[in-house]
Amino acid sequence: MDNHNLMSTQTLPLQTTRLSEIVSYDPGTGEEIGRAPLSSPEEVRQAVARAREAQPAWARLSYRERGRVVLKARKLMLAARDEVALLVSKETGKPLAEALSMEVVPTLDTMHYFAHASEALLRPQKIDIGQYGLMGRSSRLVFKPLGVIGIISPWNFPLATPADEIVMALMAGNAVVLKPSELTPLIALKIGEIFDRAGLPAGLLEILTGDGTTGAALIDARVDKIMFTGSVATGKRVAEAAAKYLTPVVLELGGKDPMIVLEDADLKNAARGAVWGAFANSGQACASVERCYVQESIAGKFIELIVKETRALKQGLGTEKSVDVGAMTNERQRAIVEEHVSDAVQRGATVLTGGRRGAKPEGFFYEPTVLTDVDHSMTIMRDETFGPVLPVMTFKTDDEAINFANDSVFGLTASVWTKNIARGQKLAERIEAGTVMVNEVVYTHGIAQTPWGGVKDSGYGRTHGRMGLLELVTPKHIHVNRISFLPDLWWFRYDPSATKLFGGLATHFTTGSILKTALLLPQMLRRLFERRF
Ligand code: NAD
Questions:
Q1: Burial, 103: exposed, middle or buried (Cβ in 10 Å; 0-12, 13-18, 19+)?
Q2: For the chain, which terminal residue's Cβ has fewer other Cβ atoms within 10 angstroms, N or C?
Q3: Distance from the CA of 525 to the center of ligand 1, in angstroms?
Q4: Which residues lie with the beta carbon below 6 Å from any ligand 1 atom?
Q5: Same-domain check for residues 165 and 114
Q6: Judgement on whether residues 420 and 500 belong to the same structural domain of the protein
Q7: Domain limits at 273?
Q8: 337-361 pLDDT, tens per residue?
Q9: Considering the domain boundaries, does residue 375 fall inside one?
Q10: Cα separation of 96 and 314, whole Å?
């Protein structure tokens, strides 16, 4: 019975669900783990209203006071790390090791960083306004919270993705309403419970478990910004729905991330990087290595290494400590993987290892798979597979590698592998992506300080780092004129001498030169003082 992936109430057996619930299953065993409410549009409206009411008092607190709550939540999460990791592993199928290393650790790091750094990152800034400064004017920027942030998140990193954004939004002085994936509601409720126990005032973090209809209702409830992470198709629907209200949106969407291995790379490490980058989280990471391009002269050796490394991986239940690759999180995603592999094989691809479902029929396992003889006519090289498949192609020149890498509608991350760092950086500049790593894969989402986001169909806007924090505030420009007793040169009244002066401003003032502008001083002074009452 393949019902565990289908969390919408319409598709679950009637005896196991009420219309107001979603059921969470372990994708490795098919067993029910728990249930969560399917929030109705009315409940969404009420949650947004509560958040809106709670936010102003929170915004009035200092960064230090807000940070204290975040650090308390961090302490509680650290103490509960094993329990949290187990729940993440059970709800997603990913190995416990990854639940810790790719979710709990980066989340704790993000909490620590933003609790301490947000004040400095959002410190008011003086703006240099050039010659206007000589007229007694000054400008500065202050950063104000937006109000209520709606977070809509996916199932593949059900802790780190929403928790990081919650922390950033709260530190910036906002309230948050989170709509997690219907496949991973329990971990979202856990996040809510931790913040609640940390003393976060009521209303500042509302968790609305539910499906797409709940997400759509969140947009209709008119929050002040939507932070959406998910597929391109849903991202487009979200952007369209949000446009009705002019609600700004950050879209963190899919990827088809390329890895380029140059002939001077450390081959063994590049092979291990490729295998981890392609198969961690069963390949269900937006930044997974989905295409590998290796320079022809070293391709044979490199492919031999990745096949050996792949065959050594242990697949099984994520909750078992020595498992490397767990079950995929849902059946629909596994079906996409099967379709992509079958299309590739029909068009001439060779399966070097894997290429079939895993041994345990009760879970959504798919064996880590390495393909060669692939090309860009195949869906496996064009569409997001989001599964444990590593297709490898060869290239001859750097230009050819760049052309392959950029031949995609996506642009989330990419990597270049070489011992020649200068060459790597040069190529990194030419790849169309939000992040390009040299001798690294996938992991920079885990660095709190660096921006995360894509180009092309991978979305727009950023999360993490200062740029991510800036998405969660509105910059307010405050402009002051200290010479309050004189009318501006460009105010009424107009006469021929005014027109002459403005012509002079066009030719002199706009050059930015104080000396040239000084030539206009007599005309300027005459106009300033002539018009005094
Ligand atoms: P999805 O688009 O199916 O769902 C994402 C979220 O949107 C879920 O919470 C879902 O309930 C909600 N949703 C569905 N329909 C909606 C609607 N009409 N209005 C509002 N919300 C709606 O994505 P998924 O399958 O959960 O996640 C996998 C995708 O996420 C992959 O494409 C992956 O690449 C992408 N992803 C991107 C990043 C990134 O940072 N760029 C990170 C993780 C995952």
A1: buried
A2: C
A3: 61
A4: 152-157, 161, 179, 181-182, 211-212, 215-216, 229-231, 234, 237-238, 252-255, 286, 384, 386, 412, 454, 459
A5: yes
A6: no
A7: 257-457
A8: 999 999 999 999 999 999 999 978 8
A9: yes
A10: 13
